[in-house]
Each structure stands twice: as structure tokens, then as C-alpha cells.
């Protein structure tokens, strides 16, 4: 009995079990969500910029949300702190925002306003803010109000970067899995077991989600519910890691390049978002208007499969991360920042070359014949009545 209790209290055991339970919950919940979505016609509409050609359930974020929190809260985490409580509160706000947006579609301004409110709840009540630039650009300590505004900008930017990245099967989920798994390792190495458990619980939920997101028969999207939950948690992990390491001068366990390392972990969504904002602003288009100029769309329109495009982009991100891990002690933060700028320019140039011969406004989408949603609901109801009638008229043996 004592050995059993000792095993249950072992932090490494708890983290691994949370990961496994999160996978199981997601894999169990998603088929139910798919059936309900089809029954109630809660499906992703087909648009010109879509990369799918069939009506697909879009509430995968519900399973990600439930699996992550259930897997985390099954343990007593004495070192979790007030910040995680506030992060969960903000997460619940974003969950309901995402549900409403996935079902009814909200305007970008309303979504942004609620995202800001959720982020400020964590920043102000938890006093979780980036208060130093680690000497980057010659800046160290940041005034209180500016630190709040800067942290708010970082959180909102990462949330929407993940949302923009969620354009093809598997990409946002795979980026989220890799990033959350890396953050779990970093937190574990610092003795922050509660954060490591939360991060690996998120990673587990994404493994379960990807099982269906890659499927051809039982496909589901994470929707805005999933992308906002994923984006917020990754933003929380990123800010917490930077803040925790800010006293690196006094603690040899901590690192002086935490901001750079965080940028590289989230390199793909940040590069993609920055590139799209530059393109849209330079052409006089609203930065919030969707299109098919993202690099993942460009790869798809060049003939790559969804999984092929995803693997290429993930390989790019991991290659930069591995390369940085090898050279990080030989270069200053300023030198690495310059290297990242050059890498971004190369990324943009490759995207330009790939998109040069593609007319993203005339990509063939005629395989789908749009049916009014009310008509689809009527067809679903007729099918139910037909099935019910046939079951009632069958002879009893």
C-alpha cells in the first residue's frame, strides 16, 4: 500500500499519467462530438480560402479543453500558484467565446475585445508580466504600464498566430503538441511540476485530436475554440518561462536567452503571422482579413498534401530549434536576433517563390456545391424520420 501511495505522489508518474489520460479522454470524446455536430449541423462552411472540400465538424476544441483540464486537475499540485488558477479562469472565458464563434460566427472586433479581457485577467490579477528585455536592444527593466501593454500584446499575438496557422489538417495541432511538449520539459527541468503537468496534459489532448484531424472518415477541426485555447496556453507558458528566468543573474539554473528560446519554440506561428501582416498592410488590406497567402496554403496549392505541408513546416521549425541548441552558448542574444531576422527574410523569399505562379483567387473550389444551412438541417431531419419509420415497420422476429 505504501509503495502504491509513493507511486501516486511521484511527480514524474503524475506527469506521464496526465499525458496518457488526456489522450484517452480526447479519443473517447471526439466521436461523440462528431456525431452531435453532424446531427445539429455544427459544421465548418466551405469558403474560397478553405483547404477542405467537405462539410466537417468544427468543435474539436471542446475535447481539447476538457481533456487538458481533467488530466491536470486529477492531482494535487501544491506549487501551482495563483497564476494557474487565473489562467484556467481566462481559459474558460475563451472557451465560451470560441464555442459561440464556431457556432454563430463573431466579428473580429468582438473576439479581440474578449481576448484582451481574458489576457488582462491573468496579467493584472496574477501580476504575470514581462518586466525586462534581458538587455535586448539595450533595454533592461520596463516601466509597469509598458510591461502590462507589452505582455498583453505578446499574449494576443500568440493566440491569433495559432488561429491563423489553423488552416490545414494537422498543422496547428502538431505545432501545439511540439511546443507544449518542449515547454513541459523546460518547466520540469526547473522544478515547476504543476506547469509541466499542464503542458503535457495539453500535449496529450492534441495527440488524441490529431488522430481524428488526420482521419479521412471521421475528420474534425479544432475550430476557434481549440485554436484560442491552444494559443492562450502556449502564450501563458511562453510568458511564464520568460518571467521565471528573468532573475538568471542570481540563479545558475536559469538561462539568459529565455526570450530568444521562446521565440524559436513558437517560430512557425510567429513567422507566419508577421509575414501575413506585412503583406496585408503593404497592400492596403486589413490584417484581419483571411486569404490563401499563408505558406501552408501556398504549399497545398503547389500540390503538397496536408500531411506533407505540415511535416515540411514542422521540420523547418525543429531544424532552427536544434541548430540554436547547438550554437546558443557561442553567440550573444543580439547576434541570434539578427540571425532570426535573416531567417525570416529567407522564409519570406521562399514563400514568394512558391506563390509566384499561383493565383490564390482562382483556386478550384467547384467540387463543393453549397447548400443553405436551413436546407441541410431539413435534410438531416428527413433522414432521421426515414430511419425511424423504417425501424418501426420492420417485422419482429
Helix/strand layout:
Layout: H1 2-9, H2 11-40, E1 43-44, E2 56-57, H3 60-73, H4 81-104, H5 108-125, H6 144-165, H7 171-189, H8 193-213, H9 223-244, H10 258-265, H11 267-282, H12 295-301, H13 306-327, H14 333-355, H15 373-393
Antiparallel strand pairs: 1-2
Helix pairs in contact: 2-3, 2-8, 3-4, 3-8, 3-9, 4-5, 4-9, 5-6, 6-9, 6-11, 7-8, 7-9
The gist of it:
With 397 residues, the chain is an all-alpha fold. It has 15 helices and two strands.
Q: What radius of gyration results from the CA coordinates?
A: 22 Å
DSSP summary: helix tally: 15
Helix content: 55-70%
How many distinct beta strands? 2
Biggest β-sheet: strands ordered side by side in the sheet:
1-2
What value does the average pLDDT take? 86
- The chain-level structural class is mainly alpha
β-strand amount: under 5%
- Main pleated-sheet profile: 2 strands, antiparallel
Regions with pLDDT < 50 over 5+ consecutive residues? 360-377
Architecture overview:
- With 397 residues, the protein is mostly helical.
- The chain is built from 15 helices and 2 strands.
- It has helices at 2-9, 11-40, 60-73, 81-104, 108-125, 144-165, 171-189, 193-213, 223-244, 258-265, 267-282, 295-301, 306-327, 333-355, 373-393; strands at 43-44, 56-57.
- Helix 2 packs parallel to helix 8 (193-213), helix 3 runs antiparallel to helix 4 and helix 7 (171-189) runs parallel beside helix 9.
- The protein is globular and about 75 Å long.
- Residues 360-377 have low confidence and may be disordered.
Amino acid at each position: 500500500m505504501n509503495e502504491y501511495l509513493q507511486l501516486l505522489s511521484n511527480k514524474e508518474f503524475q506527469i506521464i499519467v496526465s499525458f496518457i489520460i488526456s489522450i484517452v479522454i480526447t479519443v473517447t470524446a471526439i466521436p461523440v462530438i462528431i456525431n452531435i455536430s453532424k446531427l445539429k449541423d455544427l459544421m465548418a462552411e466551405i469558403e474560397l480560402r478553405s483547404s477542405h472540400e467537405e462539410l466537417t465538424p468544427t468543435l474539436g476544441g471542446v475535447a481539447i479543453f476538457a481533456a487538458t483540464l481533467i488530466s491536470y486537475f486529477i492531482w494535487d499540485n501544491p506549487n501551482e500558484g495563483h497564476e494557474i488558477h487565473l489562467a484556467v479562469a481566462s481559459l474558460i472565458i475563451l472557451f465560451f467565446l470560441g464555442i459561440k464563434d464556431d457556432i454563430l460566427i463573431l466579428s473580429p472586433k468582438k473576439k479581440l475585445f474578449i481576448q484582451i479581457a481574458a489576457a488582462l485577467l491573468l496579467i493584472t490579477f496574477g501580476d504575470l508580466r514581462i518586466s525586462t528585455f534581458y538587455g535586448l536592444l539595450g533595454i533592461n527593466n520596463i516601466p509597469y504600464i509598458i510591461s502590462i501593454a507589452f505582455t498583453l500584446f505578446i499574449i494576443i499575438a500568440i493566440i491569433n498566430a495559432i488561429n491563423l496557422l489553423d488552416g490545414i489538417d494537422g498543422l496547428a495541432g502538431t505545432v501545439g503538441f511540439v511546443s507544449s511538449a518542449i515547454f513541459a520539459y523546460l518547466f520540469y527541468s526547473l522544478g515547476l511540476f504543476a506547469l509541466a503537468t499542464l503542458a503535457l496534459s495539453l500535449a496529450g489532448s492534441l495527440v488524441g485530436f490529431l488522430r481524428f484531424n488526420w482521419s479521412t472518415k471521421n475528420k474534425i477541426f479544432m475550430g476557434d475554440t481549440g485554436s484560442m485555447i491552444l494559443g492562450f496556453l502556449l502564450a501563458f507558458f511562453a510568458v511564464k518561462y520568460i518571467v521565471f528566468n528573468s532573475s538568471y543573474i542570481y540563479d545558475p539554473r536559469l538561462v539568459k536567452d529565455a526570450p530568444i528560446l521562446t521565440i524559436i519554440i513558437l517560430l512557425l506561428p510567429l513567422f507566419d503571422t508577421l509575414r501575413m501582416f506585412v503583406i496585408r498592410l503593404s497592400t492596403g488590406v486589413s490584417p484581419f482579413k483571411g486569404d490563401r497567402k499563408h505558406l501552408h496554403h501556398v504549399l497545398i496549392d503547389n500540390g503538397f498534401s496536408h500531411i506533407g505541408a505540415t511535416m515540411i513546416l514542422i521540420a523547418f521549425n525543429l531544424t532552427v530549434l536544434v541548430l540554436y541548441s547547438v550554437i546558443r552558448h557561442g553567440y550573444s542574444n543580439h547576434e541570434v536576433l539578427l540571425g532570426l531576422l535573416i531567417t525570416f527574410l529567407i522564409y519570406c523569399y521562399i514563400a514568394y517563390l512558391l506563390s509566384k505562379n499561383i493565383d490564390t483567387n482562382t483556386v478550384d473550389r467547384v467540387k463543393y456545391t453549397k447548400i443553405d444551412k436551413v436546407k441541410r438541417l431539413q435534410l438531416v431531419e428527413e433522414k432521421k424520420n426515414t430511419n425511424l419509420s423504417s425501424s418501426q415497420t420492420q417485422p419482429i422476429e
